[in-house]
From TrEMBL:
GO terms for molecular function: diaminobutyrate acetyltransferase activity. Belongs to the acetyltransferase family. EctA subfamily. This is L-2,4-diaminobutyric acid acetyltransferase. Its EC number is 2.3.1.178. Transmembrane segments: none annotated. SUPFAM superfamilies: Acyl-CoA N-acyltransferases (Nat). The gene is ectA. It is an enzyme of class 2 (transferase). Pathway: Amine and polyamine biosynthesis; ectoine biosynthesis; L-ectoine from L-aspartate 4-semialdehyde: step 2/3. Keywords: Acyltransferase, Transferase. InterPro entries: Acyl_CoA_acyltransferase, Ectoine_EctA, GNAT_dom. It holds the Pfam family Acetyltransf_1. GO terms for biological process: ectoine biosynthetic process.
Length: 155
């Protein structure tokens, strides 16, 4: 089942992010806050009562018709079952009045590149890529963050 997160889901989101080994992990507090203040633009996937995945997002303040996806993660026990794609579809369909989706992906993250490319294909949308933040700006050996702007997207 895919639906809006509750504050108590923030702990599971933090745990899944930390266990992913690839995400920049925020504080536990940040995930709790996200599940409270951005629940309308985020989703969790559940297997029974257990959270097995999440997508966090928000509307761009200067362009509210754009949904920005911040993080996507699926618990190791649920990977390879299409959970991430279903969460992305469910989230986009649940947020009214959006026509574009944006996310950033490092060049070495093949899984995320494939996930968002398949989303665009399913929705018949164009994907435009450009560097948003350089490796120099991000520092500490971080790869550049490439902006994927997808749209217009069909609901």
């Amino acid at each position: 089942m895919i639906g809006r997160p509750t504050v108590s889901d923030g702990v599971a989101c933090w745990r899944i992010a930390a266990a992913s080994g690839v995400l920049d992990v925020n504080s536990r507090y940040a995930y709790l806050l996200w599940c409270r203040d951005f629940a309308a633009t985020s989703v969790v996937a559940r297997d029974g009562a257990d959270v097995i995945g999440f997508v966090t997002g928000f509307r761009r303040p200067d362009e509210p018709s754009t949904l920005v996806v911040w993080q996507v993660a699926v618990d190791e026990v649920a990977r390879g079952r299409g959970v991430a794609g279903r969460m992305l579809d469910a989230l986009f369909d649940a947020v009214p009045d959006v026509g574009h989706l944006e996310t950033t992906i490092t060049p070495d993250n093949e899984g995320s590149i494939a996930l968002f490319s398949r989303f665009a294909q399913r929705r018949g949308a164009e994907v435009r890529r450009s560097e948003l933040f350089s490796a120099e700006l991000l520092g500490a050996g971080h790869e550049p963050e490439i902006l994927f702007r997808i749209g217009p997207v069909r609901h």
